[in-house]
Specification:
The chain is an all-alpha fold and 273 residues long. The chain has helices spanning 2-20, 23-40, 45-48, 50-76, 81-102, 107-127, 147-164, 169-178, 183-207, 226-243, 252-272; strands at 220-221, 224-225. Helices cover 74% and strands 1% of the residues.
Length: 273
């Protein structure tokens, strides 16, 4: 039953990955955290590591989901690669630092950091200009990002994304949006930018586990739940194929509002569980 639920939510994660760029982390982390606590209990070895497992498995799922979504957007012609390439290497370095830091914090700290970041992102998108408004047509092609900007943004985004297991879209989408990108372009760029973070963080979570951590089982590589990852990836593959049908077909303002609405829903779930 657990894996059937993960398959269904993988479907949802795939749809939101291709349309909003954040399906992997913001769907997988609260879902897997809740499922692990319910299935194994909060005082089991897996229950005590539930938040770390959820974050680590989320980054692993992102490797596959972001790769598939990137391919869909590339074929649709919505990717602006000149904006993406300068950030990728710096995000990978930041991700290694973020994953290392996460293994040194308790699960409750990670959960509340996840909740706090969600809340700040929602407030920033609502209260600061530049996110909800539709950019002028002339602003659809942005000027290339400078190397110092790429280093600063990439290191910070990679570190926070890996620490929370959210892929970076919650930072890259508002960043690209305020630089003049449409929601379609901003969410498209979030997917390839999640890839270096996801690969680096997944390896880090598999290798940099706590020394006194109790063994979690045969299907675990460090904190990564491989069985859950496979179920989520299978669902994501189906979701990305479905979500790809709507690429570029959602009105810009509606797309931006839906992005904030989904973040708010995830915040509510994390506050309840």
């Amino acid at each position: 039953m657990m894996y059937f639920i993960l398959l269904l939510f993988g479907l949802l994660a795939g749809i939101t990955t291709v349309l909003f760029g954040f399906g992997g982390g913001f769907v997988v982390v609260p879902l897997l955290y809740s499922v692990l606590l319910t299935t194994y209990g909060p005082h089991s070895a897996i229950g005590e590591a539930a938040m770390h497992v959820a974050v680590a498995t989320s980054t692993c799922v992102m490797i596959f989901a972001a790769s598939m979504a990137t391919l869909r957007h590339h074929k649709a012609g919505t990717l602006q690669w000149e904006q993406v390439r300068p950030l990728m290497a710096f995000m990978a370095v930041g991700a290694a630092l973020g994953a290392f830091a996460a293994t040194r914090f308790g699960g409750d700290w990670l959960r509340w950091a996840f909740i706090a970041y969600l809340g700040l992102t929602i407030l920033d998108s609502l209260l600061r200009s530049g996110f909800l408004r539709q950019p002028d047509a002339s602003a659809q092609r942005m000027s290339p990002i400078s190397r110092p900007q790429a280093a600063g943004f990439g290191l910070v985004i990679g570190a926070i994304a890996a620490f929370l297991g959210v892929g970076g879209s919650v930072m890259t989408v508002p960043l690209m949006r305020r630089r003049g990108a449409s929601m379609t372009a901003a969410t498209a760029m979030a997917n390839p930018l999640s890839l270096p973070m996801a690969v680096t963080a997944s390896l880090s979570y598999a290798l940099l586990t706590s020394r006194d951590m109790a063994p979690l089982g045969n299907w675990y590589a460090g904190y990564v739940d491989l069985a859950a990852c496979l179920a989520l990836v299978a669902g994501s593959w189906l979701g990305i194929r479905l979500g790809g049908l709507w690429i570029g077909k959602i009105a810009d303002r509606t797309h931006a509002r839906a992005y904030i609405g989904l973040l708010s829903l995830v915040l509510l779930v994390m506050l309840i569980v």
